[in-house]
Specification:
- The chain contains 20 helices and 18 strands.
- It is globular, with a radius of gyration of 27 Å.
- The longest helix has 18 residues.
- It is 32% helix and 14% strand.
- The chain has an eight-stranded parallel sheet.
């Protein structure tokens, strides 16, 4: 894998020349390279294709799978709380001989992408592996006059994999294209930023035509600044790319940051700032995405599993505070270190080789729950009690107006976070990086004191997640339970609209997410009005496959026959919600002789489902002894029913 080889070359460690040389000899047999592409077309304006909204909506937390994609690895990636899974797709695997998309070898890539999407993860695909007929090496650059060929390939990829069963909308064009490998530094893209820009000019319009909502980013730049000292990356590559109008064909600029190779950037924010400054000299302000950052847990590199766990939180917080849109942690799972020195990357996983969770796994989970994609508000200072060796940031929750601060100590030992008296009344609670409660002690003059080490703590501030669901609302705890687990969300203005009706499509999604079922669209589409393009398609198909939903025979308004319809936009009733919940839980149906409600006779189609839900204390009726089974269920009511059910065996 070219990533690991080049990392070792630039790594500031005690690796010997002999060790590095032995790696170079066996590397081609070890792991698949990640390379690059180019075309000879001239740059042109890309304004018509730009879709910055999709960049700004990109989830913050991602993980690099290292192309290890067995079920335990994918299941752990999902469980860690990440939203995006970074992986490679080799052009040479799909189009080994020059042909057209109807003759591409899709099957293996179909299976890989579907396996990722079925876990509720969005693939971030690195295009790599240039075929011999198109490039001088597998890592580029392209031969002349290959612009139309690479555009055809990548456009076909974007068109095929935008479908919901694959859910691929994030495209990274080669890995570390500023690499200058080769005895004369002419291999790969590193000394050819003009050719890389020409490739972008061909590829970008093709991707956008196939999937207007895609995010097209550069290959993650090493952006290494010690080329003159023997490093293998061209520090002037980005400048050359910008000089050749490459920014016109990108939605975002990707880069890499490793603490071991900081080259003066002691945190990820400093490197991001330098890249922003360089772009600004060209009048460019592309969003930044860090597609690789991580830290080994190996004690051979002044680290450990607890140190790695703390760094997960620190790095993610610093990146978000410095305008990095998304951050991909390298690595998902450890792999064997075949020679000394590999541990600097082979032990960067959130899980060990046996799939057991490291402390960093839990730290990532908790960060996703506490901060997630929440808006960065400000860096904390002395007025917040964050002084001396303390460092901290404040975020708005992913939904609504709840705020959370994350604070840690940059020195050895303990430091004291002093929460000012003016803020003390707003304090809700404090938890550590593993989600365990931390006590706040009373200080002088109404202040509160929290002991903080290098392990970050989360300071939760009062106020509800949603502006229209205050902590005093009857549905507050139910809405909070579901929202904290990503099962429900709110609106961009911070509201939830608890009294609005809920639709059949929305509740099907909630049940599937709440149960954590893998996405399954086998045999679909099963409903005429839920095609693959429908936002709820994969979730409704999954619910159908689990046997908890069915459709209607044609005959309703705008329902031509023959056909089965689901009516996803129709408001769901209290009875229908109850049935879905009971079926999803697999509870044994009850049929008591005496009805619990005077408007629900025993011959009702929903009788046994509602009575079963009553026995499990999931639903209740009104003070007059009625249930109102045909009433439209509100968003607050559905939250209560599902929340109560999910918390039962």
């Amino acid at each position: 894998m070219i990533r690991i080889r080049t990392r070792l070359l630039r790594m500031k460690s005690s690796l010997t020349a002999a060790v590095i040389a032995s790696w170079l000899l066996i590397a081609p047999m070890a792991l698949k390279d990640r390379g690059g592409i180019y075309s000879a077309n001239s740059p042109h304006s890309a304004t018509a294709y730009a879709d910055s909204a999709s960049v700004s909506a990109m989830p913050r937390i991602a993980i690099d799978g290292g192309d290890v994609m067995d079920p335990p690895a994918l299941d752990n990636a999902h469980a860690a709380g990440v939203s995006i899974f970074r992986m490679t797709v080799a052009w040479s695997d799909i189009e080994p001989a020059n042909t057209d998309p109807s003759h591409y070898s899709w099957t293996s890539t179909d299976n890989r992408l579907q396996a990722v999407a079925s876990r509720g993860l969005s693939p971030l695909v690195i295009i790599t592996g240039c075929p011999a007929w198109a490039c001088q090496t597998i890592n580029g650059p392209l031969y002349d006059n290959m612009g139309s060929e690479v555009a055809q390939f990548v456009g076909a990829m974007a068109g095929r994999y935008r479908q919901s069963q694959y859910n691929a909308h994030y495209w990274e064009l080669w890995n570390e294209p500023d690499d200058t490998s080769g005895s004369d530094h002419q291999l790969y893209w590193g000394m050819h930023p003009d050719k890389y820009a020409q490739m972008l000019a061909s590829v970008y319009p093709a991707i956008k035509a196939a999937d207007p909502n895609s995010v097209v980013m550069s290959g993650g730049l090493a952006f290494d600044n010690w080329f003159s000292q023997g490093g293998s990356f061209n520090p002037d590559f980005l400048n050359g790319l910008l000089n050749n109008n490459g920014a016109s064909y990108l939605d975002a600029l990707a880069f890499h940051y490793y603490k071991n190779n900081n080259n003066g950037w002691t945190n990820i924010g400093l490197k991001a700032a330098q890249i922003h400054n360089l772009m600004s000299t060209h009048g460019v302000n592309l969003p930044l995405i860090c597609t690789e950052s991580g830290l080994t847990s190996s004690t051979n590199f002044d680290s450990s599993e607890p140190i790695q766990a703390s760094y997960v939180v620190q790095m993610n917080a610093q990146a978000a505070a410095n305008g990095v849109q998304a951050i991909s942690w390298y690595l998902n799972r450890d792999f064997p270190a075949r020679i000394p020195g590999w541990e600097v990357f082979s032990m960067s996983g959130l899980t060990r080789q046996d799939n057991t969770h490291k402390p960093a796994f839990t730290a990532m989970q908790v960060f996703a729950q506490e901060i997630g994609s929440g808006q960065f508000l400000r860096q904390l200072g002395a007025s917040d009690g964050v002084a001396g060796s303390l460092e901290g940031y404040r975020f708005r929750g992913t939904y609504g107006n709840r705020q959370t601060s994350v604070v840690w100590n940059n020195s050895n030992g303990q430091a004291t976070l002093t929460i000012p008296a003016a803020q003390a009344s707003e304090l809700d609670s404090v938890v550590n990086l593993y989600g365990q409660a931390v006590s706040a002690q009373a200080g002088s003059n109404g202040t509160l004191l929290v002991n903080v080490s290098s392990d970050p703590v989360y300071v939760r501030w009062g106020g509800s997640r949603f502006t229209d669901v205050p902590s005093t609302a009857w549905m507050y705890s139910y809405v909070e339970y579901l929202a904290s687990r990503g099962i429900i969300g709110g609106y961009s203005d911070g509201s939830f609209h608890p009294n609005d009706p809920a639709t059949r499509g929305q509740f099907s999604k909630m049940v599937v997410l709440g149960k954590g079922w893998p996405i399954n669209t086998a045999g679909g589409p099963h409903f005429v009005d839920v095609p693959q393009s429908n936002a709820f398609y994969s979730l409704i198909e999954t619910a159908y496959g689990r046997g908890i939903i069915s459709g209607y025979t044609c005959g309703g308004k705008d329902e031509p026959c023959p056909g089965t319809y689901f009516r996803p936009s129709t408001d769901i009733t209290r009875a229908q919600i109850t049935k879905l919940i009971v079926l999803s839980k697999g509870w044994t149906l009850l049929n008591p002789s005496r009805p619990s409600f005077n408007d629900l006779p025993s011959d009702s189609a929903f009788y046994s489902f509602i009575e079963t839900a009553v026995s499990h204390q999931v639903v209740s009726g009104y003070s007059d002894g009625t249930f109102h089974p045909n009433d439209e269920a509100t968003r607050g009511q559905r939250s209560k029913m599902l929340s109560l059910a999910l918390q039962q065996p």
